[in-house]
Specification:
Helix content: 25-40%
Radius of gyration: 23 Å
Amino acid sequence: MKDRLFEIWLSLRVGPANPAFIPLLEQYNPYELFSMSEDDVEGLPCDDQLKQKLRDKNLEESHRILTYCRNHRVELLFWQDGHYPLALRALKDPPMLLYCKGKLPDFNKDLCIAVVGTRTMSEYGKRMAYKIGYELSYVGAVVVSGMALGVDAVAAAGAIAAKGCTVAVLGCGIDVVYPVAHKSLMNEIMRDGAVITEYPPATRPLRHHFPQRNRIISGLSQGTVVVEASRDSGALITAKTAIAQGRDIFAVPGNVDDQHASGTNQLIFDGAGVVLKPGDILDHYSFFYRDALRPDLLTLAESRSELDEKVLERLEIYVRKSPDEMKNAKSPTADRHRMKPVESAPGEPAKSAGREQEKPIPDPRTNAPKRPVPPPSEPRTGDQSEQALLSLTETQRKLFEALPLDHAVAVDYLMKAGFSMSEIMSAMTMLEIKGLVVALPGGLYSRK
């Protein structure tokens, strides 16, 4: 445990996505670096900023993290460990320390395939994401994703339904569920698979974490499949990272007139492998991973991999619809779903969103008599007392005032107030504690 303490200390000093630790660990172990005098630190092969951080010998935060990991069965995977993934070791900016929870696959033997895509899927995209996740997992591949809304979550759900292994790479601490609606999904992933992150416990999901996180998703995987994505989709960041890492790229073709397939179609035009069915992916790897895969089970998997909406409901996965589908939903022949906005992921532009339910929920306010609307900062019926409002900080007050009086909103709506993701999450937590707001499934917030 002593070694783990100093590994955590070093990782906190170096920070994520920083390859500066590699020349250090080629000569010294973490304890030796911690024990160095100021003169010894001065001679290390790193820049002055890192040298200054290495002079900080405070172990308080490292002790806190180690205690948390010990109490919550969080496994630490360090750069010098024998079972550290070789695929990550080959990256130019590998993670030094990974926090892992669940059942880790053998990354050095198993076929890992990343499945990513848009957060506003079409029904076609949803079916393909589930089918790919199910069939790959059923025959023994490990499905890797970011546990994001949309394709990531549905592909993970398919793998879970197949009782296979799926790994989610987080852009936050191992103890933080993001998106918040995916708590059930995260718990299910850890039953037969694992969640991993390079960010220490209690780290909030900041916007710049997600591009950093993407390099681990693609880095762990022999191939990356983009199911459905527009040209400006965050999923293409993962695809570009995979290309830079020398990994294989696959894409599911879509309608040439569909903007939500423009990114995947462009990948195919540029040379990505075409995926018409999951077997097309397995054909590339079945020989090299013949000891890890069971291609003889593929036919059976194909007969069972049709989308099961009950699985999505059980895992509380709510699918955002594309703008075109939202327009069609207004027509008499469209599916009757009650639409609500859901949370946009960091790094992706705010988009129209929807949450599907089996039946519309009657709104008791429809025929209710109208009443005067109070000013934004004045409590209405159901809010807490005026004293609670007076106790708010300026940030908390502005975010409370930004909340509409009559419906729930997502975090991307609140970001219009000019605050960062971390400021919003901190303020909304305090507003919850004060009893002024309530957090709803799908990452929504509403006045109480």
